[in-house]
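Continuing from the previous page of notes. For each protein in this section, the sequence appears first, followed by its structure tokens. Read the first protein now.
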Amino acid sequence: MTVAPEQAAESSAQQPVHTRALIIGTGFSGLGMGIALQKQGVEFLILEKADEIGGTWRDNTYPGAACDVPSHLYSFSFAPKPDWRYVFSYQPEILTYLKGVTDRYGLRRYIKFDSHVKRAQWDDAEYRWHVFTESGQEYVAQFLISGAGALHIPSLPDIPGLEDFRGPAFHTAQWDHDVDLTGKRVAVIGTGASAYLRLWAANGSDADFTGFNLRASSEAIVSMSRTQE
């Protein structure tokens, strides 16, 4: 294997960590795979970019965040939860469930937190994956399993004039809980589940919400007002 100067600098920073299987992410997929490998006695590690488990249910904390799949189905078959509070559970309860499963199966000792995967490459001669994190740590594994999702990664539209907007602006996946929306006029861009859940949660709040669809010919899709008649 030919190692580029950048790669050599990364690999020399710390000694490589060897394991049989390497999992990326601690959402439902990553945790479930870890438990399955644990049951089969396969050596593994999990790389998590954040400082806590949960994936999208850790990062998406906007008001009204919930799952559109019934809770008894949106849970591990080996870890049923008979006392879900709602048929379609909200983010806090789902995250609590994931933390409970993580602790019940002792997964935290296998998780490397604050380990954001930068790149991975397969070595034909070694039959091994070489995975590097942003810190420069190298992991070597026979199997690389990605449990990385995309629902927590903001998709920001290129809206002309957005840089001139003087009010608070943020994506639902990066909700700013320090912003008080009481009595404010709020534009919600998008018609996906996050937008509708946010608009639904706003019903009853003292705010004026208007939703917009960037793709539709008719822009305004819904308006909920508690400050104007």
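Done with the first. The second protein uses the same format. Note its length before scrolling.
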Amino acid sequence: MAVTLSRDDARIRRRVPVRSSGRRGIQMEKNLHIVLNLLKRELEFLEHGGYKRSPASPWRAPYMFEESPSCPNHVDRTRQTRCQDCWLMQFVPDDLHSEQVPCRFVPLTTEGLTVDTLYRCATSAESEEALRAWLRQHIREIEREICEARAVRFEA
């Protein structure tokens, strides 16, 4: 299953609060919708076996985020797009933005387990389950924010 991101999707970086009303609130809600769709696409990729071993590199599991359609460089190993321009950067702690591959430091659990930690200490199945739970949690949170933003907009 191939999931493709549009150029606009890949450029979304920061999720911003949607508490304000008016034109700015509508734009923030639009950004939340874009991030929500990207998270749902990543979950769909995961659910359809996107992180199962690939024939191109059967000796290892694919890298989470890096080898999925979520990564603007997933088909371009020369990394023409800077990681800092990736929409996933909003989930990377600020002090880790300068890492060579920042998306490896997305905290997936409340205990602070990151993609990088899972590479070192978890099985592929455990890693996929942690990513699945993280994706579902963020999808629920953003859906709730969108509902709240709509309620605020309709009250105004």
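What the second structure shows: The chain is about 45% helix and 0% strand. Residues 7-155 form one domain. We return to this in next week's lecture.
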